[in-house]
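TASK: fixed-backbone design
INPUT:
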C-alpha cells in the first residue's frame, strides 16, 4: 500500500480512503498457488489474477448481490467474513448478499485455501471489487440524475440525491456495467465509518451445523444417489494378489463391483449394504506387502540419516564470545489430521461430463488431477466445493473425490457418494510430516544471545493435487500415475523450514534446511506446516537461555525484539496474564510463554500458560491460557478469537497427546484408541484471547498463528514445573515421569 494508517484517531471523519495498491513481493504466495511471482496487473490480492469486477460481484435486478470467491469454507468462518467485507463496501445489508464459494465452473481460480491467505487475498480482492462496483453504480446514478457523483450518497443498496431522488442498485444495474477490469485505486470505506466490518457478526454457517441441517458434503442426498465404499490396500506399496468378487456381486442391493489394478470399490443402493459389501470384499482379498517403513522407536535418527538436499537459508555474523551454551534435538512425530467426519465426496458422470462435490481445499487443482487420472479433458470435469465435517489441511478429501470420480464412471447418470471408513482415514491420511530440529545457542556474559545455530530435517509439506500421482486412486489403478515429485516450498514462507529463521536480533545466526526427498510415510500439508516445531524449538531454547542466565523469559524476549508489533503482542499477553506478578501455588505449578509470527510474515501471536503437573501421574492440567494477537485490520473479532482458541486447543493436543504409530509394514494408529487426541477433561480451564486493534491496516493471515506459540508455552511451562527440558513430542505423562525420575 502507498500509505499505512493504523490508528483510528487518524481516520475519524475521513469518510473514505482513496488507496492505490501494488502487490507486495513479500506476500507472494507459494502454497496457495496464486499470486506467486511478480504482479501481473498491479492490483490488490487475488484481483491481480482475476481483474474483472463481475468475476467477484454480481448484482441482479432485485438489487441483491452475489459474491464469488475461489476460497473454501473450512470451518474458519470465511463465509461470514467475506460477506461482511462485501456488505461494508457495497453498502448492502448482509441479508441481501449471498456467497458462492470455490467452483471451477463459476468462481475465480484462487488456488488452494491454505496458508491463512483467504482474507488477505480473497477478502482484499472482494473489498476492492465491491468498493469499485459501488462507485460504478454511483457514477451510473449520477449520469441518470445529471449531477456530479460526489453530490450523491449510498446506503442500503440505494443511491440518494440532494433533492430527495433515490434509485436502487436493481434499477441501476445493466448489462456490462460491472464487466470491466478493476483499477489499482479504490475508494475504501474508512474504519471510522465501519458498520459491518470489525463487528462480531454471527457465523452464517453455524445454524445448520448445530440443528442437524444439511451442512456438509456428508449430508448431501441428491435424487437417485448410490452409495459406495472402497477397499484400500493394508499398507503402502501393497499389491493385490487374489480377489474373489463373486460373493459380493451376489449380495442383494449391490449394483457393481469395480476392480482396476489395485483399486477396489463397491457400489450399492444403500449405505449399509455398501459397508457390508466392502467388508466382504476385503475379507476375500489377499495382498502382498513389504517391510518398507522406518523404525518408529528412533524416528529422529531415521529422518536425520535419510538423503537430504541442504540449503543455508540464513547466515549472518561470525561466532561470538564463549558463554552459557544450550543445545537440544527436538522432534515431532507424524501427525494425522483426525477429521471428525471421515472424508466424503459425491460424483456424477453424465453426457461425458463429470461433476464432483468435494471438501477439497483446491477445486481447480483437483479438477486437473482427476482429469489427468481419467484421461479426460479438464473442461469436462467440474469440481464444486462443499463443506466437510472436520476439514483443514490436506486431509483425505481429495482422495475421496478421486474415488468417487472413478466409481461414478461405472454408473453413468447416477450420483455416487463415497465416504471413507475411520481406519482408512487414519491409515492413508497425508500426515503432517515427522520432523527434527537441532538447535545450539549461547548467551554471552552481557546477557545477550551471542550465537545461534538451527538445523531442521523434514520431508515435503506440500503434496496436494495437481499431479494425478498425488491421488491414491491414481496410484492404484492399472494405468497408474507416477509418484508426484516432492515439493520443497521456498522461503520466506517455507515448508519444513517455515519459521526456522528466528525473529530475534541475534548477531551471529545460521539456519540450515535439510529437505528430505524420500517420503518414509505419506505426508503433506497440516496447519502451520513446519512452523509449529520450529517455533516450539526456538522458544524452548530461548527460554532455557533466559533461565540459565538468570533472566526473566519475557524480559529476555523483549531484550532481543526490535519489531514494535512483536513487542506489543508480547507485552499485551504478559500484562493480561499478570506475568510479573505470577506466584506458584505449589511445586507442581508451571508457567510458560511463547511467541511467534506466522510464517514470519502474517499475524503476530504471544501465549502465556499456567499448568499443574502432579509428579506421581505426570498428567498436565492446563489451568489458564492467555493469548494476544495482531492480525491487522479485523473483519470479525469473534472469528479471530475462534481461530486462536481453536489453534490453542489443537496445539495443546499435538504437544501432549498425538502421534502416528507404525511398524515396519503398516500404520497402526488406525482408530481413536491408538491415536489419542485431547478430550474434554484435558481442555484448559480458562482461555482468553486479546486482540490488538489495527484499524485501517492490511489483512494478515491469522488461522495458523497460535500453534507454535502455544506448543512453546506448554513446553516451557513443563520445564518450569519439573526442572527438566523435554525434547521429544508428544510430552506424554510417561515421558514426563521418566524425565523427573532421572
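OUTPUT:
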Amino acid at each position: 500500500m502507498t500509505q499505512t494508517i493504523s490508528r483510528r484517531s487518524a481516520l475519524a471523519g475521513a469518510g473514505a480512503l482513496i488507496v492505490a495498491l501494488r502487490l507486495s513481493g513479500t506476500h507472494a504466495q507459494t502454497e496457495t498457488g496464486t499470486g506467486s511471482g511478480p504482479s501481473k496487473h498491479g492490483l490488490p490480492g487475488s484481483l491481480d489474477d482475476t481483474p474483472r469486477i463481475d468475476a467477484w460481484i454480481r448484482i441482479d435486478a432485485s438489487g441483491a448481490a452475489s459474491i464469488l470467491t475461489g476460497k473454501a469454507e473450512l470451518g474458519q468462518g470465511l463465509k461470514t467474513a467475506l460477506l461482511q467485507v462485501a456488505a461494508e463496501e457495497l453498502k448492502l445489508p448482509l441479508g441481501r448478499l449471498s456467497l458462492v464459494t470455490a467452483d471451477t465452473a463459476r468462481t475465480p481460480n484462487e488456488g488452494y485455501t491454505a496458508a491463512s491467505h483467504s482474507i488477505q487475498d480473497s477478502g482484499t480482492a472482494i473489498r476492492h471489487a465491491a468498493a469499485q462496483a459501488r462507485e460504478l453504480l454511483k457514477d451510473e446514478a449520477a449520469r441518470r440524475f445529471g449531477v456530479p457523483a460526489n453530490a450523491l450518497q449510498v446506503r442500503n443498496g440505494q443511491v440518494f440525491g440532494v433533492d430527495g431522488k433515490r434509485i436502487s442498485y436493481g434499477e441501476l444495474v445493466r448489462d456490462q456495467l460491472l464487466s470491466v477490469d478493476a483499477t489499482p485505486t479504490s475508494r475504501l470505506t474508512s474504519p471510522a465509518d465501519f458498520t459491518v466490518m470489525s463487528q462480531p457478526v454471527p457465523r452464517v454457517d453455524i445454524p445448520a451445523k448445530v440443528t442437524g441441517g444439511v451442512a456438509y458434503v456428508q449430508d448431501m442426498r441428491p435424487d437417485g444417489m448410490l452409495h459406495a465404499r472402497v477397499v484400500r490396500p493394508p499398507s503402502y506399496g501393497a499389491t493385490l494378489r487374489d480377489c474373489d468378487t463373486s460373493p459380493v456381486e451376489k449380495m442383494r442391493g449391490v449394483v457393481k463391483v469395480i476392480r482396476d489394478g489395485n483399486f477396489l470399490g463397491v457400489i450399492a443402493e444403500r449405505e449399509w449394504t455398501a459397508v457390508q459389501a466392502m467388508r466382504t470384499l476385503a475379507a476375500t482379498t489377499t495382498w502382498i506387502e513389504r517391510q518398507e517403513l522406518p523404525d518408529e522407536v528412533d524416528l529422529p535418527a531415521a529422518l536425520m540419516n535419510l538423503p537430504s538436499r541442504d540449503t543455508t537459508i540464513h547466515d549472518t555474523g561470525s561466532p561470538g564470545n564463549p558463554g552459557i551454551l544450550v543445545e537440544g534435538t527436538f522432534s515431532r512425530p507424524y501427525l494425522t489430521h483426525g477429521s471428525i467426519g471421515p472424508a466424503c465426496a459425491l460424483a456424477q458422470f453424465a453426457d461425458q461430463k463429470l461433476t464432483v462435490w468435494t471438501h477439497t481445499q483446491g477445486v481447480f487443482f483437483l479438477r486437473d488431477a482427476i482429469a489427468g487420472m481419467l484421461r479426460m479433458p479438464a473442461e469436462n470435469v467440474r469440481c464444486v466445493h462443499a463443506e466437510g465435517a472436520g476439514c483443514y489441511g490436506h486431509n483425505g478429501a481429495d482422495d475421496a473425490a478421486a474415488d468417487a470420480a472413478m466409481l461414478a464412471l461405472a454408473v453413468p447418470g447416477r450420483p455416487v457418494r463415497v465416504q471413507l471408513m475411520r481406519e482408512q482415514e487414519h491409515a492413508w491420511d497425508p500426515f503432517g510430516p515427522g520432523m527434527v530440529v537441532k538447535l545450539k545457542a549461547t548467551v554471552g556474559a552481557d546477557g545477550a544471545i551471542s550465537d545461534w545455530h538451527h538445523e531442521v530435517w523434514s520431508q515435503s509439506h506440500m503434496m496436494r493435487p495437481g499431479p494425478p500421482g498425488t491421488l491414491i486412486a491414481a496410484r492404484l489403478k492399472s494405468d497408474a500415475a507416477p509418484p508426484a515429485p516432492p515439493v520443497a516450498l521456498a522461503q520466506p514462507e517455507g515448508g519444513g523450514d517455515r519459521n526456522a529463521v528466528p525473529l530475534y536480533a541475534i548477531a551471529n545466526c545460521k539456519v540450515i534446511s535439510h529437505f528430505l526427498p524420500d517420503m518414509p510415510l505419506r505426508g503433506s500439508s497440516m496447519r502451520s506446516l513446519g512452523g509449529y516445531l520450529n517455533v516450539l524449538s526456538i522458544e524452548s531454547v530461548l527460554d532455557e537461555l533466559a533461565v540459565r542466565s538468570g533472566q526473566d523469559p519475557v524480559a529476555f524476549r523483549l531484550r532481543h525484539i526490535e519489531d514494535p508489533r512483536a513487542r506489543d503482542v508480547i507485552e499485551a499477553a504478559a500484562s493480561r496474564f499478570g506475568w510479573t506478578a505470577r506466584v506458584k501455588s505449589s511445586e507442581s505449578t508451571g508457567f510458560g510463554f511463547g511467541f511467534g509470527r506466522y510464517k514470519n510474515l502474517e499475524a503476530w501471536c504471544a501465549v502465556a500458560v499456567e499448568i499443574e503437573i502432579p509428579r506421581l501421574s505426570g498428567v498436565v492440567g492446563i489451568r489458564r491460557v492467555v493469548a494476544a494477537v495482531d492480525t491487522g485490520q479485523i473483519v470479525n473479532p469473534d472469528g479471530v478469537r475462534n481461530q486462536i482458541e481453536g489453534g490453542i486447543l489443537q496445539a495443546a493436543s499435538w504437544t501432549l497427546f498425538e502421534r502416528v504409530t507404525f511398524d515396519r509394514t503398516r500404520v497402526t494408529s488406525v482408530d481413536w484408541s491408538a491415536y489419542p487426541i485431547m478430550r474434554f477433561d484435558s481442555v484448559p480451564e480458562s482461555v482468553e484471547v486479546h486482540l490488538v486493534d489495527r484499524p485501517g491496516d492490511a489483512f494478515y493471515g491469522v488461522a495458523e498463528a497460535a500453534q507454535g506459540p502455544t506448543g512453546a508455552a506448554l513446553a516451557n511451562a513443563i520445564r518450569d514445573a519439573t526442572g527438566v527440558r523435554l525434547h521429544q513430542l508428544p510430552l506424554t505423562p510417561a515421558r514426563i515421569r521418566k524425565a523427573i525420575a532421572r
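COMMENT: The CA atoms of residues 72 and 102 lie 6 Å apart.
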